[in-house]
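Quick one before lunch.
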Amino acid sequence: MRYCQLIIIFSSCILLSFCQNTPNAETSSYAKIEPGQLIYTKYCSNCHGGDGSLGLSNASDLSASNLSTKETYEILMNGKGLMQSFSGMLSDKELEQVVNYTRSLRN
Ligand code: HEC
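Model of the heme C complex:
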């Protein structure tokens, strides 16, 4: 009987360790975050906020912006007011991704 209990405990330990190795929901949803959102979170959200409307340091409300893609891109290249230029910091591809993400914040 005691031997039997040991086997049960042992096999549930093995089962548990298998469960820990399978990718959980958190890691798989992380993979789905688009690159533009990661760049935005890193470089833009401290002034503009996660949804674009935070307005710290007088930052424009991006959810209410009506700039064209080209104009948004130019603001990122040249900077404006307290916002620095991102031209040397982000690659062309990253700029394109973050511009697209920024435009997706509009309501
Ligand atoms: C230091 C704070 C700060 C950071 C970081 C910042 N911004 Fe800004 N942003 C501002 C400010 C301030 C303005 C308003 C400038 C003005 O009109 O004088 C602005 C304006 C803008 C505008 C113009 C919106 C409009 O409709 O006029 C866009 C687009 C924009 N930011 C996008 C971004 C993106 C994308 C990032 C990240 C790559 C970013 N910003 C990072 C402060 C910031």
